[in-house]
């Protein structure tokens, strides 16, 4: 059984997830800010990180990537459609906010660019990267079927859905992603979103007002 640690980080309180196994190996999802805090958590718990996975490349999800990557010598995975966003503040959104620095992140190695939906097997972590665009064109959800949870970025929230007024966003595409990719998961699947509280697929099917009438 995997252990999922959640940390709300940075000015927008973006959720970073550290998923670990019994061997204390871990994967890091969306290290968006506060690199020092992430590094301290990993070291203080004796964890051995194996990689960083990004649900998408908005600035609040990528801010600590370089520092965490360099601290542990980690590979980084991201959808091919948003590789160019990492070092382009106009695409990752940081340039829109005068109070924020421009977010510039080093691009990953070619072999870590996700070009198709795929199953990852890293040590005893087994999960699938599924494409859930709409909030952004390269949004990915990572589904741990055997462990009953999914990390969905800013695609689906408790009683909400991701915004679609940013670069490459589309409400129609977002709702199709949710209905065709996420709501087809078992209803007891725990949903870990990019912001706010966790929920379940069943709960959102029943009560999410944004999904009614699709």
TrEMBL record:
SMART domains: Lactamase_B (SM00849)
Cofactor: Zn(2+)
TM helices/strands, residue ranges: none
Segments forming domain Metallo-beta-lactamase: 13-195
Keywords: Hydrolase, Metal-binding, Zinc
Domain of life of the native organism: Bacteria
Xref: Pfam families: Lactamase_B (PF00753)
SUPFAM superfamilies referenced in this protein's UniProt entry, alphabetically: Metallo-hydrolase/oxidoreductase (SSF56281)
Coiled-coil region(s): none
The protein's name: Metallo-beta-lactamase domain-containing protein
Organism this protein belongs to: Lysinibacillus contaminans
Organismal lineage: Bacteria, Bacillati, Bacillota, Bacilli, Bacillales
